[in-house]
């Protein structure tokens, strides 16, 4: 479940920190300039343009993400149930053959064993196809979540004048401290949920 957010946090955070460090270095006051240099950027103004979102909280409270998680879990459960049912039916056929094998002719045993081998191969293909289908669904769904988040954050950052929006997570030690005054998670979650609730189909409300 959290693989997407974990990967997202690592990629976004790593990139964001790299850009933020560059921006801080570029915007830092020039030590060789005079105190009256109007082009110097004060640390406070620079800091105000860098904010962060707690990805742990986002995954817990963003309704869209939770809906996708529930949807994917239901698909996984259904696939597991279907495969388990087919697997149990196959095991019953194997057990039945083992009971009757002694009374069967050599040709009958060979035909039955070939039939069971084909069914076993088919079960393997079904398992592989189901795994691939679920992986594709997960990638598609979480890509949509990622796009929704990044599109909103881009718009929000432009409106607020933020230069960088970083991600913070307790599971990602890249950031060991972040000033809570720079945390915009609550307003982001509220806005994302409001936007999602207005877009999702009426039958889901």
UniProtKB/TrEMBL annotation:
GO molecular function: unfolded protein binding
Name of the protein: Periplasmic chaperone for outer membrane proteins Skp
Gene Ontology biological-process annotations: protein stabilization
SUPFAM superfamilies: OmpH-like
Keyword field: Signal
InterPro entries assigned: Chaperone_Skp (IPR005632), Skp_dom_sf (IPR024930)
Originating organism: Sphingobacterium nematocida
Transmembrane segments: none
Annotated signal sequence range: 1-23
GO CC term, one of those recorded: cytosol
Keyword Signal: yes
Family to which this protein belongs: Belongs to the Skp family.
């Amino acid at each position: 479940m959290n693989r997407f957010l974990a990967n997202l946090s690592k990629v976004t955070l790593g990139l964001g920190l790299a850009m933020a460090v560059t921006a801080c270095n570029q915007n830092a006051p020039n030590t060789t300039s005079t105190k009256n240099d109007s082009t110097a950027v004060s640390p406070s103004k620079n800091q105000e343009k860098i904010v962060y979102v707690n990805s742990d909280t986002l995954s817990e409270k963003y309704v869209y993400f939770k809906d996708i998680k529930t949807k994917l879990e239901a698909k996984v459960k259904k696939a597991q149930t279907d495969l388990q049912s087919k697997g149990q039916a196959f095991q019953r056929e194997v057990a039945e053959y083992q009971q009757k094998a002694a009374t069967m002719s050599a040709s009958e045993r060979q035909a039955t064993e070939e039939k069971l081998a084909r069914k076993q191969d088919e079960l393997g293909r079904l398992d592989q196809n189901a795994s691939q289908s679920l992986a594709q669904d997960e990638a598609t769904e979480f890509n949509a979540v990622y796009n929704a988040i990044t599109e909103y954050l881009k718009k929000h950052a432009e409106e607020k004048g933020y230069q960088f929006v970083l991600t913070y997570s307790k599971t990602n030690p890249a950031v060991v401290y972040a000033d809570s005054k720079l945390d915009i998670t609550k307003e982001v979650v509220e806005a994302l949920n409001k936007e999602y609730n207005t877009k999702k189909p009426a039958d889901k409300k």
